[in-house]
Design brief:
The chain contains 13 helices and 19 strands. By secondary structure, it is of the alpha+beta class. The chain has three domains: 234 residues, FAD/NAD(P)-binding domain, CATH 3.50.50; 116 residues, D-Amino Acid Oxidase, subunit A, domain 2 (D-Amino Acid Oxidase, Chain A, domain 2), CATH 3.30.9; 44 residues, no CATH class. Strands 1, 2, 8, 9, 10, 11, 18 and 19 form an eight-stranded mixed beta sheet that branches. A hairpin with a 5-residue loop joins strand 5 and strand 6. The radius of gyration is 22 Å and the shape is globular. The termini are far apart. GO terms for molecular function: FAD binding; oxidoreductase activity, acting on the CH-CH group of donors, NAD or NADP as acceptor. Pfam families: FAD_binding_3 (PF01494). InterPro entries: FAD-bd, FAD/NAD-bd_sf, Geranylgeranyl_Rdtase_fam, Geranylgeranyl_reductase.
Length: 420
Amino acid sequence: MNNPSYPVIIIGCGPAAAGASMFLSKAGVRHLILEKDSFPRDKICGDGCSGKTALVLRKANPAYLDEIFADGERFLPSFGVVFAAPNGKAIDIPFGTDKIVEGRPPGFTVKREIFDHFLFSKLQGPHTTIIQRATVTGIDTSSGGYTVTYKDNSSPDGALQSVQCSLLIGADGDKGISRKKLLQQDVLSKSSFVGLRAYYDGVTGMHPQNFIELHFLKDALPGYFWIFPLPNGQANIGIGMDSELVRKKKINLRELMLKAISENPNIRHRFTHARITDKIYGWGLPMGVEKTRVSGDHFLMTGDAASLIDPFTGEGIGNALYSGMLAAEAAAKALEHNRFDAAFLQEHYGDVLFRRIGDELKLSYTMQRLVRYPWLFDFVVNKAHKSPALQQTISSMFADLDMRALLRKPSFYWKILTNQ
């Protein structure tokens, strides 16, 4: 008896999978999603959504953003980011005005349990089949693509099932079976960060326009401590660091985070009446610090499975959704031309993906390396405090890659030094 067959199978159902599914449906491509958990389910995250998230949702269906920004109980509009240097001085960087469309905020914060469920609710339709509580146990090559075996945990006997596809989209994270099987555990050692997250009530001193905050503490460089405001007076509090550095220096990241909350002179007063509302959770962050393989014969990798987290801000939701959208476009072309070979998929997905976001990731990695030198970060922020023109230049760097490339040039720092 033949196994059921789909043109496309997606493993995972986070933002990358949601982006792929939305645009596969728009193209009329029938597809299957296999998700190991059941919704709603939590995902440890910083809970910040950039302008790229809004871009993909707008392209998928403008009504999605209408729904998000009308729901103030669950989604909080955000208009920028605060960067606090190791010396405690901070500068406000508004998100670029070019990111504001139809008067809407350029970004927002939302708990991942809520946002992922929101995305999940938009995936139902005639072209989409979703199987929850499906643990994928095998990915094997077949004559026309892949045979995927999964354990159906929703059935009483947990029976093993098999399905076939012409194209497989891996969207199950950096430690998922897709990466292990399709890229032979091709993990980039220096791309790994580790993060901790907790939810708090009663944190004070938030920016009036709900800017997200990145505090580059000397003990955490090249990582940072963050404060992300959420609806109803809540906040996502966390810290992220290079995992190799954590191991090498035997750093207790939980203790470092709690020490910042209780002792840092620029932070502690904001937690005087705050209380933690759940546990402190940890997770890995596969940073996009190197161009990596994201496709091959009959498969595409997206989101964390493709190591696409921004190396400087740590934001991964926008790139996950964006990579899912591009994967769907490549899948539609592959099905149209009946081409699933590595060269075709590299041309229509891998090359396109890194042409669109590759320079952004490279420059963010440059910025991450820059903050390894606290004296230099302090110097730039001190100068920015005294120079509105420099503040505008730094703000422009987050919207204009040519401006951000200035960070690589010694002449940029010489001009700051000489007040030019």
